[in-house]
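ARCHIVE CARD
Drawer: 12
Card no.: 0347
Subject: one protein chain, sequence and derived structure
Cross-reference: see card 0346
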Amino acid sequence: MRLPAIALSALVCAGVLAGCTTAPVGSRVRGLSIGNRPVAATDTLEVVINSYRAAGGGVFPHLADAPRVREIDRPMVELLVDHLANHGTIKPVATDNWAFAPPLLERVAPARPAPAN
């Protein structure tokens, strides 16, 4: 079985239902929500990305020409150290904020019959 390519980045504070990358551009994300509210096509969002993505890295060449709201010219490791110094220990929590949508889900993890009792 050959699986489709997946290019996914984490969206913190957002829920994402990802579809197949072979779907047409504009229909690959099947669901997007913030604070349990679906994001509408008319909503405007500011998204923070690293310099690799901002330069068009991965499968996101369109980001190289996207408008910039703000650029922070400090290494990511410095930003993380500052955050930890100001806020202390980070306690990771699984948020279950993304999932694969069918038909990709069946191709990645085929449904298994329920175990017999």
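Annotation on reverse: The first strand starts at residue 14 and ends at 18. The chain has a mean pLDDT of 75.
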